[in-house]
Design brief:
Layout lengths: L7 H21 L9 H16 L2 E2 L17 E4 L2 E3 L13 E9 L5 E9 L5 H18 L8 H14 L3 E2 L5 E3 L6 E5 L16 E4 L2 E3 L5 E3 L6 E3 L5 E3 L2 E5 L4 E3 L11 H8 L1
Antiparallel strand pairs: 1-4, 2-4, 3-12, 4-5, 6-10, 7-8, 9-14, 10-13, 11-12, 14-15
């Protein structure tokens, strides 16, 4: 399958979808605190999407080949859960870390996909460092996006930074192309060699969403068929943005008023 190049109309639709996806995370932020259940966060996000935004939660009933339909509106991945944690009766407690992964579909059919990490109360030093390194990994990957670059450049930047910190990169899950289809070509690996993979071209839109483990990269799948945990029970962190390749570089589409600011090395480079 070829990687689709989005039309100007598609790009405008994806800008709207990206902002709306990010605004769900803005909305839910005050509710992410000790004592709340992951199921309550799901309920609040679902109601906000459908009642306030007029969007549809993309994960709900999503069923790739070989999977049972996903039963909730968002993914809530707590502590050693790498990805696809299903919201339920789990109560978040002081010291936990959680990734909320949100994808909305606009009335025009465009997907807005992003995720953020949240601290519950006061995080451990380990959890804070892992979360911050993973955030920097995502942005180092984003900074590689430019016409004529390659997907391997993105993966390499992420892998080098994670492993230098003593962490590991999950290999089984990756970023992906996105538009009116939730998951399309290409696969965006979070490890790799510079100059390898397909060439980046203006109009491509894809996610960069590194999953970084404090321990080893090995995974285990839970009996629900969706939840993925670290095999060694170490903490895992993930951040995700949706990125457009422009004529001169990149545009992050999943930004809103409450988005955490880019790291200093990004803003300094843009100012230079």
């Amino acid at each position: 399958m070829a990687i689709s190049i989005k039309t100007p109309e598609d790009i405008e639709g994806m800008r709207i979808a990206g902002r709306l996806g990010s605004e769900v995370l803005d909305y839910i932020t005050p509710f992410v605190k000790p004592g709340v259940t992951t199921g309550e966060l799901d309920r609040l996000c679902h109601e906000y999407m459908t009642n306030v935004q007029g969007t549809v939660p993309a994960p709900l009933n999503y069923a790739p080949p070989g999977y049972t339909p996903y039963p909730k509106a968002i993914c809530t991945s707590v502590n050693d859960v790498i990805c696809h944690g299903i919201p339920g009766d789990k109560v978040l407690k002081n010291g936990d870390v959680v990734n909320l992964d949100i994808t909305i579909i606009t009335k025009d059919g465009y997907h807005g996909d992003n995720s953020r990490m949240f601290y519950i109360g006061e995080p451990s030093i380990l959890a804070k460092r892992l979360t911050e390194v993973t955030y920097d990994c995502m942005w180092l990957g984003i900074a590689q996006v430019r016409p004529g670059g390659h997907f391997g450049d993105i993966g390499h930047a992420i892998q080098v930074h994670a492993e230098k910190a003593g962490y590991s990169v999950v290999r089984e899950f990756c970023g992906h192309g996105i538009g009116k289809v939730f998951h399309e070509e290409p696969q965006v690996l979070h490890y790799g060699k510079p100059g390898t993979g397909d060439e980046l071209k203006p109009g491509m839109i894809f996610t960069i969403e590194p999953m970084i483990n404090a321990g080893r990269r090995d995974i285990r799948e839970m009996n629900d068929g969706w939840t993925i945990k670290t095999k060694d029970r170490s903490l895992s962190a993930q951040w995700e943005h949706m990125v457009l390749v422009t004529e001169t570089g990149y545009e992050v589409l999943t930004l809103s008023a409450g988005s955490p600011p880019p790291p200093a090395f990004i803003t300094d480079a843009k100012a230079a």
